[in-house]
Amino acid sequence: MIDGQSRVMKLTLGALAELEQALAAGSLVDLVQRFETGGFSASDVLALIAAGLQGGGHVMSQTDLAKAEIEGGVMMAARAAAQLLALAFMTPSDT
Questions:
Q1: Do the domain assignments include residue 71?
Q2: Measured between alpha carbons, how far is 89 from 68 in angstroms, rounded to an integer?
Q3: Neighbouring residues of 93: CB distance < 8 A, sequence distance ≥ 6
Q4: What is the domain count for the chain?
Q5: What is the per-residue pLDDT across 57-87, written as a single tens digit (0 to 9) for each?
Q6: What pLDDT sits at residue 94?
Q7: Single pTM value for the model
Q8: Is 93 a residue whose pLDDT tops 80?
Q9: Which of 18, 84, 16 is nearest to 45 (CA)?
Q10: Gyration radius from the chain CA atoms
Q11: Most CB within 10 Å of its CB: which of 8, 11, 63, 69?
Q12: Residue 59: domain span
């Protein structure tokens, strides 16, 4: 829930490539490891959620997202970003 509205998020391959570059991740594995080890930043969370929103058809800049009210606060935003990244790497048989 962002600004009181339920939003669908998904990461496209293009969004993942942009995230690698924008977040200075050497690879997708490096990006995943940031979240698995808790070594992510607020900028990482914002970038992931913004990319997920775009993939879900809800374009919102990172600047606007930074000002938005995310239900559950910072911890929920971080959890949503980590789940979004994990879902991007699930195979159909994992679901």
A1: yes
A2: 27
A3: none
A4: 1
A5: 888 888 899 999 999 999 999 999 989 988 8
A6: 61
A7: 0.82
A8: no
A9: 84
A10: 13
A11: 11
A12: 13-90
